[in-house]
Amino acid sequence: MKHFEPSEFEFASEKLTVKQILKPVIYVLAALYFLVDAAFTAIARPISNWLARHVVLRRLRAWIRSLRPYPSLALFSVPVIMLEPVKPMAAYLAATGQMVSSVVTLIVGELLKLVLVERLFDLTRDKLMKIPAFAWVYTKFREAKAWLKATEAWKAIVTIAKTARQYASQMKKSAATAFRQP
């Protein structure tokens, strides 16, 4: 039987405590990330797809695709730089009691930023990946996202969201059936 020194035992109990503290934090972060990602992606992706098909923007797409890697990175950075001040502006509006304006500003700014960044990334991905630092950051981002999706918290949130969508769909069907009956 192994004899534990008090310092070893204290370290193990501290580690357990840290895990116990971090688990709910990870659940909350996963839930927030999932909700924000789902909400904004559900809105941003159709807008982005519409933009991709829009005839008027064909020349612009061709020009963007013709850019070299570093000009592509500069262009990719523009929506982030231009629209990042929306967050402090929304915070200011909220702090001054203008809640509706704050929420609308935040949602519109974030959607616009996501749509533009997604479209630009789609158009310039190959060029951006030629920049070693960008490729490294993107790889780390993908790894972090994969890690988050592999956590129990993420899986639980996905299950809850799927169940909620199914429940809402069933409620909608039953409401439609109730209205159709004479």
Textual characterization of the structure:
This protein has 182 residues and is mainly alpha-helical. The chain is 88% helix and 0% strand. The protein is built from seven helices and no strands. It has helices at 6-53, 58-66, 69-83, 86-95, 99-128, 132-150, 152-180. Helix 1 packs across helix 7 (152-180). The model has no long low-confidence stretch (mean pLDDT 81).
Distinctive features:
single chain, 182 residues, mainly alpha, 7 helices
Q: Could you give a quick summary of the protein structure above?
A:
With 182 residues, the chain is mainly α.
Span of the ends, CA to CA: 78 Å
- The pLDDT mean sits at 81
Strand content: under 5%
Stretches where pLDDT is under 50 for at least 5 consecutive residues are none
| Shape call | globular
Total count of strands: 0
Helical residue percent band: over 70%
Give the number of helices: 7
**Alpha-beta content class:** mainly alpha
Give the C-alpha Rg: 23 Å
SSE blueprint and pairings:
Layout: H1 6-53, H2 58-66, H3 69-83, H4 86-95, H5 99-128, H6 132-150, H7 152-180
Helix pairs in contact: 1-5, 1-7, 3-5, 4-5
